[in-house]
Design goal:
The complex is a heterodimer. Chain A is α/β, with parallel strands linked by helices. Chain A has 16 helices and twelve strands. In chain A, helix 10 (225-234) links the parallel strand 4 and strand 5 (238-242). In chain A, helix 7 (137-154) packs across helix 8 (171-178). The longest helix of chain A is centred in the C-terminal third of the chain and has 37 residues, at 327-363. The radius of gyration of chain A is 26 Å and the shape is globular. Chain B is of the alpha/beta class. Helices cover 37% and strands 13% of the residues of chain B. Chain B has 13 helices and 13 strands. A seven-stranded mixed sheet of chain B has the order 1-7-6-5-4-2-3. Chain B has a four-stranded antiparallel sheet with strand order 10-11-13-12, covered by helices on one side. Chain B has a two-stranded antiparallel ribbon with strand order 8-9. In chain B, helix 6 (135-150) packs across helix 7. The longest helix of chain B has 38 residues, at 317-354. Chain B is globular and about 85 Å long. Classes of the chains: A alpha/beta, B alpha/beta. Chains A and B meet through helix 3, helix 4, helix 5, helix 6 and helix 7 of A and helix 1, helix 2, helix 3, helix 4 and helix 5 of B.
Chain lengths: 495, 430
């Protein structure tokens, strides 16, 4: 089943919405504004009645997999259950109805929520202060690097390089480059962890920071983290923590205690705010005392029982976003923290690690497991063992879609061939994990008996495998003028 | 504990299946010195107690009625059709992940493809992306595009751009050595001229002249636009701007203390390969069925890493969905009516307020749509007096612009009914 575009469903003369009339005597815009300021050609928007609109979107919704219905074993994405109470909390009129430029005395509850969330996040990751302003994880990474840059500059220290392990998320090097740093890659050792020898050889007075994910993207805890921190700090560089994998050890250990100076968190991963099909998320950044002066402004401060926004921060890197961040997501995360508490968050991480190790055990012998366990909250398998049958990680992924599971993160991290990165989280039951392992088993058997069927997967979804290469080629034709078909948008064919 | 699923017995069985006796054996890689005794946070609460605490915080905020809100400055009250939250509240949309597996994500992909088309149509430009975080970061991302495209280092900000957008632009630029300057005389060092239409004060700028001036200097023109204004005003594509950006909050999103909202960006087709963020295009499967995929990913961070056009790896998908539902609900006719009703009421209000003793239009020679700056006697006491009557009065802009001492901007939309306007005038004049 597929659904036509709203533009294709559109009918001229369809019922327009009934909207308020002005009800005052005043001239129309066309009478007041000069002609050159006015729009010449009206925008070609669809015209549909409300019943048709609602059906259109309901049909579109039915074409999606989502965490509400499917298991999403997406490594490093932490697709947990999104508590419904969080949604109710964020939509309370006392939050959703607030204008960002209301006077502080009228928004004390909102400021206190931000203050309390900041304190809770400080406790979880072991830092001194947190900015809640960044809108996403990558935005948080960049914010942290800007603070690190400002810190070094304030000491007259012009450091130009950022070290990033080869197993890092792609956003790490991109965020470093956006801050004007050049990126130097640090190799992983044979055990999948950062190579101390390689790190040693890359460290120099030019290095501003090392960006590290722990557990790393292979799901392995960096055992040598204390040595890494010492080496990095000895050269005057800072240690940055990519919080994508924070769900591995809440209440068990803290990045701050490991020696990390700046820590970003993804509220849409660890703290259950929904992914929304790709956002909005929130990417707060925690910092140790040395970096506090450089936090984006405003910060939320408490004085004599009153909460205030502090805009007077002379060393601040400025603003990274308008207003105070994705406040609605902060409400959701705070609601989650209250419900879970210290005991609940700790158990959540323990269960996440347990689930990952359990599932790892279940797929052992079915797929390659290139690194020794135990793993933390996720593990990386490889479909390399199916190469003799011509089956790739992509085929396994599509086979899983046919079996009503979303696919793991594939072809990442780049250091493992045919990688399949699996993160089950604490909110999937043992029965679900067993069923998933069963589906993998079925697929591995199918790879042997009928690889063609697997190559053609998915068979049970609204569309089959899509020709992504063809799309990119057609866009090139459009951009170079050899085709009129815009590909990136719908356009009315003019007669 | 809420939201956890394993029973103690499950845990025992799982440990046994793994072949270990305790969780500690799974955590052996963590140095002992790092292990915490406990997480220093209060224990969790029941849902009842959780919600009681959250509601108590919400109750300590003062919510002004939509109809009595006259404060804008980048966030506006608009009528939001119920259809919007009915759609964004569908768990198939809000609990879905980024559409990495297109066959299992056609709903999200198609909705965002429709969003891209709606924004391209509104702005009159060729292509729009899948959305950005907000208006401020959209301005910054557009400026980065211009910098790469022209190989020049300076961005010129003409007129009253939203002060927070300017601050974000500066913060973005600083790391990479991009200079941001206020002014409207581009030189051969200028990568782009950025202007807001209508500007932060609500006034119309001569977008055509600014665009021409940018082009004459070999710079790009970046227009930061109000999406609803485009039902009436010439869109960036019509006056030749290269990139259009803006904040989409007015398209069906609650004020929510400033976020989450949604930024949009559209450009001429020559600049498409420099666009940051997600792009969705049409595709086909082997049976010829149409589908939608993430495309041109070779620009993006997960492929290009440090050479990517931007580090953004998501969009504000759910907010973009809200904007799509809103625009589809309104259609061209509805959007125009919303813009026109706002225009008429704002002009009626401006007329009435200007007659109050000591009140005058701050820029009487300039045109506006539905937000306008006034010089008022004693702004602070005035705003306090209005608040006592339940009115969220205008925005004092001198906190950002010293030269605008005593200037307050008022905004007026279709939610401010005529009786509300009369009440504002009455209390203000009392």
């Amino acid at each position: 089943m597929t659904e036509l575009l709203s533009f294709e469903l559109s009918r001229p003369g369809a019922q327009a919405p009934r909207l308020p009339e002005a009800g005052v005597s005043a001239p129309a815009s066309t009478d007041v504004l000069p002609k050159e300021a006015l729009r010449a050609r009206p925008p070609d928007l669809p015209r549909l009645s409300e019943p048709e609109i609602m059906r259109h979107y309901s049909r579109l919704a039915s074409l999606n997999y989502s965490i509400s219905e499917q298991f999403y074993p997406l490594g490093s994405c932490t697709m947990k259950y999104n508590p419904v109470a969080n949604e109710v909390a964020a939509s309370l009129p006392g939050f959703a109805g607030l204008h960002p430029y209301q006077d502080e005395e009228t928004v004390q509850g909102a400021l206190e929520l931000m203050w309390r969330l900041e304190r809770a996040l400080c406790a979880v990751v072991g830092v001194d202060r947190v900015t809640l302003q960044p809108a996403a994880g990558a935005h948080g990474e960049w914010t942290a690097l800007r603070m690190i840059q400002a810190y070094h500059r304030s000491r007259g220290d012009k450091r130009t390089e950022v070290l990033v392990p080869d197993s890092a998320h792609g956003t790490n090097p991109a965020s470093a480059a956006l801050s004007g740093f050049s990126v130097v890659e640090v190799k992983s050792g044979p055990d999948g962890r950062i190579s101390l020898t390689d790190l040693e050889s890359k460290l120099s007075p030019r290095v501003a920071a090392l960006m590290l994910t722990n557990p790393n993207t292979l799901g392995l805890f960096e055992r040598e983290i204390l040595n890494v921190a010492e080496m990095v700090h000895a050269t005057g560089a800072m240690l940055y923590y990519d919080g994508a994998n924070l769900n591995a050890f809440m209440g068990v250990c803290r990045p701050g205690d490991m020696g990390f100076d700046a820590v970003h968190m993804n509220l849409h991963k660890t703290f259950t705010t929904p992914h929304g099909g790709g956002g909005p998320g929130a990417g707060p950044v925690g910092v140790k005392a040395d970096l506090v002066p450089f936090l984006p402004h405003p910060t939320v401060e408490k004085a004599e029982g009153e909460f205030k926004l502090d805009h007077r921060r002379p060393q601040s890197i400025g603003r990274v976003r308008s207003f105070y961040g994705n406040f609605g997501m902060l409400v959701r995360a705070y609601t989650y923290v209250l419900a879970m508490g210290g005991d609940g968050l700790t158990q959540a991480s323990l269960d996440a690690v347990l689930s990952a190790n359990y599932l790892r055990k279940q797929v052992e012998g079915l797929l390659d497991l290139p690194h020794e366990g135990p793993c933390m909250h996720e593990f990386v398998a490889s479909a390399h063992n199916l190469a003799p049958q011509g089956i790739k990680a992509l085929d396994v992924a599509k086979g899983l879609l046919d079996r009503d599971f979303y696919a793991p993160t594939i072809y990442f991290p780049l250091v493992v061939p045919e990688a399949m990165m699996v993160e089950p989280t604490e909110t999937e039951s043992k029965a679900t994990l067993d069923a998933f392992a069963g589906a993998v088993k079925e697929i591995v058997e199918l790879a042997r008996t009928d690889p063609a069927t697997l190559h053609g997967a998915p068979h049970r979804l609204p569309v089959g495998r899509l020709d992504e290469v063809g799309t990119a080629r057609q866009i090139t034709s459009y951009l170079t003028g050899s085709s009129e078909e815009p590909i990136l948008r719908w356009k009315r064919v003019r007669k | 504990m809420p939201y956890l699923v394993h029973s103690p017995q499950d845990r025992e069985e799982m440990l046994a299946a793994i072949g270990v006796e305790s969780m500690d054996q799974l955590l052996v890689d963590i140095p002992k010195s790092l292990r915490l005794d406990e997480l220093k946070l209060a224990n969790g609460l029941s849902e009842f107690d959780t919600m009681a605490q959250v509601q108590e915080l919400a109750a300590r905020n003062r919510v002004f009625a939509d109809r009595l809100t006259f404060r804008g400055g980048g966030v506006y009250r608009r009528f939001i059709p119920t259809a919007v939250s009915a759609v964004t509240g569908k768990p198939e949309f809000y609990t879905a992940y980024t559409p990495y597996q297109p066959e299992a994500s056609q709903g999200t992909l198609q909705a965002i493809f429709e969003f891209q088309t709606l924004i391209a149509e509104l702005t009159g430009l060729d292509v729009a992306n899948a959305s950005l975080y907000d208006g401020a970061t959209a301005v910054a991302e557009a400026s980065m595009m211009a910098r790469v495209q022209t190989g020049r280092d300076e961005v010129l900000v003409a007129g009253y751009l939203h002060p927070e957008y300017l601050e974000v632009l500066r913060a973005f630029g600083e790391g990479r050595g991009m200079k941001v300057r206020r002014g409207d005389e581009p030189t051969d060092k200028t990568a782009a001229v950025v202007f807001q239409q209508p500007d932060f004060l609500g006034l119309l700028v001569d977008a055509r002249a600014l665009t021409d001036r940018a082009h004459a200097a070999g710079a790009l023109a970046i227009a930061c636009v109000d999406p609803i204004s485009l039902a009436v005003l010439a869109p960036p594509g019509e006056y030749g701007a290269d990139i259009a950006v803006g904040e989409g909050q007015q398209l069906g999103l609650a004020p929510s203390f400033g976020g989450p909202h949604v930024g949009f960006i559209a450009c001429r087709k020559e600049l498409v390969r420099r666009l940051p963020g997600r792009l969705i295009g049409t595709s086909h499967d082997s049976q010829g069925r149409r589908g939608f995929v993430l495309t041109l990913t070779a620009r993006e961070q997960h492929i290009r890493r440090e050479k990517a056009t931007s580090n953004i790896c998501t969009n504000h998908s759910l907010c973009a969905l809200a904007a799509s539902v809103y625009l589809t609900y309104m259609g061209e006719e509805g959007l125009r009516q919303v813009a026109e009703t706002s225009f008429k009421r704002a002009h009626y209000l401006a007329e009435r307020l200007s007659k109050l003793p000591g009140w005058e239009m701050a820029f009487p020679e300039r045109q506006f749509l539905n937000e306008f700056p006034m010089i008022v006697p004693k702004p602070r006491p005035l705003l306090r007096k209005l608040a006592k009557k339940g009115i969220l009065g205008g925005l004092e802009v001198s906190r950002w612009f010293r030269e605008l001492k005593g200037v307050v901007t008022f905004t007026c939309t279709e939610v401010n009914d005529p009786a509300a306007l009369d009440l504002l005038v009455e209390v203000a004049g009392s």
